[in-house]
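Extended Data, panel c. Modelled sequence:
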Amino acid sequence: MPAIMTDTSTNAPPLLAALQQHATQQGEACCHLLSDRVITYRRFWARIERASARLQGEWGIAQGDTVAYVGHGHPDALVLYFALLRIGACLLPLEQPGLILADVIAQHRPSLALYDGARPDIELPASPLQGLLALWCTHDPHPVQDGGRSPSLSMLVDGQWLVFSLDELCAAMTEAPKTDKVGRAIFTRDILCEVILPSLRLARPLQFELGKC
């Protein structure tokens, strides 16, 4: 595979540049399955672009904002993460059972929550995750010139909420994925750094609990 270079026009992180390159050069390779369609790498990148446009242009998410995800490991939450990363915002994933959502939301003050399954009982604007991608968006996203250095993901680690940049996550990434299977939580350090990110870097398929390639 050709070397992955940072996109100097937007100073995109190397992993994002790799995903864009996969969409062009290995576009029909399977990224993962949804219940009704195969998500190829071309489609995965198109969904990231659409989500970036909707978050920024329609829903008013700005650089430095936080968006919560309340769910159970839906693969479209990865689209949400990369879309937020592109526009300089941060994802707060609330996947772990037993979390007191009101307390976490009060601590992090997200602007919006997206959820799969039933609507969570929270005092916060909320939308189904499927609404992020249901229709094409006419806005053009304006990616930030960041290069992956800004905090973009809050994760619960050993009982504490820590915020990581994509650079930090990629620095901890294994050379190859330890498995291709992802269960009911995406945003743990082990799953991201040992399964998801190395799979995406190498354009390999992922098998989510919601569907298999």
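The helical segments are 14-25, 41-58, 76-86, 101-108, 166-171, 189-201. This feature is highlighted in the accompanying rendering.
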